[in-house]
Amino acid sequence: MDPYQQVKYWLDVIDYCSSVGFATVKQEQLGKEQAWADSTRWSFEFFSPAANPHSPENQVACSLHVADTIGADILRHTYGVETLDVEVLESAAFTAVRFKSREKQLLSLPLDERKAAFTAQASKLLSEGSQIRPKSFAFPAELEMVDGCLMSTDEKADPNVMFYWPNRIDGGIRAAVPFVFLYKKPLGRSGFPPLTGWFSKGLGASG
Question: What is the pTM of this model?
Answer without folding.
Answer: 0.91
